[in-house]
Automatic annotation (TrEMBL):
Membership in a protein family: Belongs to the 4-toluene sulfonate uptake permease (TSUP) (TC 2.A.102) family.
Transmembrane region(s): 33-53, 74-91, 97-115, 127-151, 163-182, 194-213, 219-237
Compartment(s) where it occurs, according to its Swiss-Prot or TrEMBL record: Cell membrane
Species classification: Bacteria, Pseudomonadati, Bacteroidota, Flavobacteriia, Flavobacteriales
Membrane topology: Multi-pass membrane protein
Main location: membrane
Pfam families in UniProt: TauE (PF01925)
The protein's name: Probable membrane transporter protein
Gene source species: Flavobacterium xanthum
UniProt entry tagged with the keyword Transport: yes
C-alpha cells in the first residue's frame, strides 16, 4: 500500500468517524492528512465523494429530525456560494479568507459560552452565512462550521442539530460533486481509489454511530462547541 492511499484511508476514516458523532467537521479532520500527499483540488474531490455516499444514509435515518424550513433556506443560498467557491478553488487559494473564517468561528464559540439567552439569527444573517458556508465548502470543503453556527443558534436539541447538519452537508456535497465533474476536477482516478477506501469509510459510519448512542446530550453540546473551537483554531493557524 503506498503512502497516498494509506493517508487517504486514515483521513477519511477519522473524518467520517467524527462526522457521524457530531454531524460535522469531517472535512476539517480529513484535510490535514490528505493535503500531505495531494493538492487541494484532489483532496476536495475525495471528501466530496464520501460525503455524497453518506448523504442518502443520513437522509434516510435522520429525515424526521431535520429542521426542513431552515434546510431549504440554507440549500438555496449555499448553491450560489458553491459556484463562486469552486471558481476560486480552480484559480486561487485565498489563505487570508481561511484565517478569517477561523477567527469568526472562535469568536462565535466564546460568545456562545458567555451569552445564555441567545437570539435566533434573522433571515438576512442566515442567508449571508449560508452563502459563505457554500463558498468555503466550494473552496476548502470546510463550510461545516458555518452551518453549525447557524443551526446551533436555532436549536438546543442535539438530535435536530445533528440531523440538520447531515442534511445541509449532504445537499452541499451533491451540488459540489456536480460542479467538480463539470469543471473536470473530479476524474475516474479518484473514483477508482475511493473503492479501496470504501470498507474503512463504512466502518467509520458504524463505529461513529455506536459511540454517538453512548454519549449523553449535555456532553454532545460541549463536544460540538469544542470541535468548533478546534476547527477555528486549525483554520486560523494553518497556512
Amino acid at each position: 500500500m503506498d503512502l497516498m492511499l494509506l493517508l487517504l484511508i486514515i483521513g477519511i476514516f477519522l473524518g467520517f468517524f467524527i462526522q457521524t458523532i457530531s454531524g460535522f467537521a469531517g472535512a476539517l479532520v480529513a484535510l490535514p492528512f490528505l493535503l500531505l500527499v495531494m493538492p487541494l483540488t484532489e483532496a476536495v474531490s475525495y471528501i466530496s465523494i464520501f460525503y455524497s455516499l453518506s448523504s442518502p444514509i443520513y437522509f434516510y435515518k435522520e429525515w424526521k429530525n431535520m429542521d426542513k424550513p431552515l434546510l431549504k433556506k440554507l440549500a438555496i443560498t449555499s448553491f450560489f456560494g458553491i459556484l463562486i467557491g469552486s471558481i476560486v478553488l480552480i484559480y486561487g487559494q485565498p489563505i487570508l479568507l481561511k484565517k478569517a473564517l477561523g477567527l469568526f468561528i472562535i469568536l462565535f464559540v466564546l460568545n456562545s459560552l458567555r451569552i445564555k439567552n441567545k437570539q435566533p439569527f434573522g433571515f438576512m444573517i442566515q442567508s449571508i452565512l449560508g452563502l459563505f458556508g457554500g463558498f468555503f465548502s466550494g473552496v476548502f470543503s470546510t463550510g461545516g462550521p458555518l452551518y453549525a453556527i447557524i443551526i446551533k443558534n436555532e436549536t438546543d436539541d442535539v438530535k435536530v442539530f445533528r440531523a440538520t447538519m447531515f442534511g445541509i452537508l449532504g445537499l452541499v456535497s451533491m451540488m459540489r460533486i456536480a460542479v467538480l465533474v463539470f469543471e473536470g476536477i473530479l476524474t475516474t482516478t479518484e473514483l477508482h481509489n475511493s473503492l479501496y477506501v470504501l470498507p474503512f469509510f463504512i466502518a467509520a459510519l458504524i463505529l461513529g454511530k455506536m459511540v454517538y448512542l453512548k454519549l449523553n446530550e449535555e456532553f454532545l453540546k460541549k463536544f460540538i462547541l469544542g470541535l468548533l473551537f478546534l476547527s477555528g483554531t486549525a483554520l486560523l493557524l494553518k497556512s
